[in-house]
Amino acid sequence: MKNIKADIILITGIAGFIGFHQALRMKKVGYKVVGIDNLNDYYDPQLKLARLRELGITVVEEEGFTTNSDQSIIFYKGDIQDAALLEQIYQTHPFQGIIHLAAQAGVRYSVENPHAYVDTNIKGFLNILELARAHTMEHVVYASSSSVYGMQAAQPFSENDPCNHPVSLYAATKKANEMMAECYHHLYKIPLTGLRFFTVYGPWGRPDMAPMLFAQAIIEGRPIKVFNHGKQKRDFTYIDDICEGVAQVYESERLRGQHDILNIGNGAPVNLLDFIETLEHALGKAVEKVFCDAQPGDVEETYANTNNLDKYISFKTKVKISDGIHHFTNWFKSY
């Protein structure tokens, strides 16, 4: 990587699972990180506050910002729907680029609360694009999702495949983000890269995702629901591998000046029942499985083709599923 000691970067969703880890990764190589998060209650905000404490942010103000001890990470409690606040953050800490990870997450919740997805994922993303248009950004890297592929049959998923049949509103908003970014690059030449994440897992993960749900049930001796009768595969990708890939994408000179959409995943789907078995082994307890029909919005398999990503960066995942689950369960038991 180039010498970026003086660079300032904005990370949205910094108290989220990926945003928290990405902030640690960017700080490690010398960036000054400015983060924003609204700390909403989609899941327990105490986990988000605990992540912030790991970043050295011990006080959350209603207005203004707080910082860690060496001022390498600055935190604003606020919403990306607030365009005036985003502009204020830029004027106070003129960042050169953006890693946009803030979103209303979750496939199943989009059935219950669709307005939250449009407000954050569409309106909020528009504010990020407008911010990038108003100020010269070296690069804007934004989170898309493997869910945009929907129920298509072709495996592995390639960025060249059509994605015109989303099966959840969450997926539809992520596809909309890609189209919005394409438009803004065409009109204003903003350098943008969208990353389609594939089933990210690891320590400090979201409690609504399978690893946390299953681990909690195993520890407490409760049965777990296995949807689609276990006939699911996911391209589980460990968080450290994801953050390294995001950092390399952000730094890639070849990606700056264009708009690309790239898969970022492990490229090795794991059967859900095998994943549960590995989790049981790591926690030293078996769990009762209740097999259920598939839920609305779920896809049967995700599988990343990362050939296009390989053209730009030397992205190779390093963490095997057994090691990743070991790291996750060690954190889970201590937390």
Automatic annotation (TrEMBL):
This is NAD-dependent epimerase/dehydratase family protein. Signal peptide: none annotated. The keyword NAD applies. The chain crosses the membrane at residues 6-24. The keyword Hydrolase does not apply. SUPFAM superfamilies: NAD(P)-binding Rossmann-fold domains. It comes from the Bacteria. Residues 9-265 form the NAD-dependent epimerase/dehydratase domain. Keywords: Membrane, NAD, Transmembrane, Transmembrane helix. It holds the Pfam family Epimerase. InterPro entries: Epimerase_deHydtase (IPR001509), NAD(P)-bd_dom_sf (IPR036291).
